[in-house]
Design goal:
The protein has 321 residues and is an alpha/beta fold. It has helices at 2-19, 39-54, 69-72, 82-87, 119-138, 153-163, 180-183, 226-234, 263-289; strands spanning 92-95, 107-111, 114-117, 143-146, 166-168, 191-192, 216-219, 239-243, 254-257, 319-320.
């Protein structure tokens, strides 16, 4: 009874306030506005009056999911939780008729004819992949992020920028690794020191240098890039890939069982791997400031400059990229 009385009083108060009509005053002439001549202005002022009257009523909307935050502020490897993976639909697999039997160790169960991926396994394998990316970045390795499906471009580019690696979001050209001298022979190379500063004077020595191969390949859609994974296997290049229930986990070195059809899942995994690479790069630069070079320097001859004086940093740790 008390609640009904309070509601009736509140409704009466709102009705009284909305029933009162105050003619607005023109800001320039300070005269009452004639809405017969300007009906659009009448609707605008009426809408503003209703908003000011009823704007304080109702509940407060809590913060909700914003898709762009996974790209502008991706999650770190330490912040990966089962709730985040569940919200990104990482657990949804394919139909049971499309499954690969080699994925049985990653499957939690079946729900309405669809395989459900175990998120405990996904979180564990994702953390392992993050450690691999962080270790390769710390030792000055070149990481290639590949995602050729529509919608994966921004996630791939963001991950590559964080890890200071390379990215590919178009079709992989077959033979870019096995026959890289013919396909990528015209690409420009440069020599950098332990602080990623370019060292000039090596252009002549780099003319006949072979094409640079990645030290780690991260593939977000292995089914469409099986040629790339095969070339990596022939050249002993470790790979990381998102393996859905219809893919073969033996195609990659470090599989991550997850839903490769969900863009939100791709963004979560790509952001975590990119953050891991960023942490590895930060540790590498910190050790370089202390005089500790974490990679094997190149065996190129130091260039000579005018006056017979070697260029600054030429005897430092050089790394071609």
């Amino acid at each position: 009874m008390i609640i009904r009385q309070l509601l009736s009083r509140q409704e009466a108060l709102i009705q009284n306030e909305t029933s009162e009509y105050i003619t607005p005053i023109d800001d320039e002439t300070h005269a009452p506005v004639d809405y017969d001549l300007d009906p659009v202005s009448h609707k605008y002022h009426e809408t503003k009056r209703i908003q000011s009257t009823t704007g304080q009523l109702g509940t407060t909307v809590t913060p909700h999911y914003q898709p762009h935050t996974l790209l502008t502020n991706p999650p770190s490897p330490s912040s990966i939780t089962l709730e985040l993976l569940l919200a990104s639909q990482s657990h949804l697999g394919h139909s049971t008729s499309l499954w690969n039997p080699m994925n049985s160790r990653y499957i939690f169960g079946i729900r309405q004819g669809i395989h459900i991926i175990s998120l405990d396994v996904t979180a564990a394998y994702l953390r392992r992949a993050c450690r691999v990316v962080s270790g390769v970045a710390e030792h000055g390795g070149l990481i290639l992020f590949v995602g050729t499906r529509p919608g994966q471009t921004r996630a791939v580019v963001t991950a590559a920028q964080l890890a200071k690696g390379c990215h590919l979001f178009e079709r992989w050209i077959p033979g870019s690794i096995t026959n890289g001298h013919q396909i990528l022979g015209g690409c420009k190379l440069k020599v950098v020191d332990e602080f990623d500063r370019e060292i000039p004077g090596y252009n002549e020595q780099l003319l006949d240098a072979p094409a640079v191969k990645p030290d780690l390949v991260v593939c977000f859609n292995p089914l469409e890039n099986w040629v790339l994974l095969h070339e990596c296997g022939l050249n002993h290049i470790p790979t990381i890939g998102i393996i859905d229930t219809d893919a073969n986990p033996t195609w990659v070195t470090y599989p991550i069982p997850a839903n490769d059809d969900s863009l939100r899942c791709i963004q979560v995994i790509a952001g975590a791997l990119g953050k891991a690479g960023e942490e590895g790069q930060a540790r590498r630069r910190a050790r370089a400031e202390q005089g500790d070079v974490t990679y094997t320097p190149s065996d190129l001859d130091p260039p000579e400059v005018t006056g017979g004086i070697k260029s600054e940093g030429s005897e430092a740790a050089a790394h071609s990229s």
